[in-house]
Amino acid sequence: MYYVYLLRLEGIKNKDFYIGYTSDLKERMKQHVAGETKTTKGRNPKLLYYEAYNNNLGSCLGNFDIMS
Q: Using an 8 Å Cβ cutoff, are 44 and 32 in contact?
């Protein structure tokens, strides 16, 4: 299973969101919350949205639409 996800970040003007992808969403969220990722460290990431896919990651990114 592949996941594309949207995080809300605090403390960075004009960079309030982060879009990522992973094959293990629970583990990736643990890393974000623990500050183990450079892009979200110290920014209190909150999961806003995710989509799960059975197919390959290239297809996932082409189908992801955060505006819907």
A: no
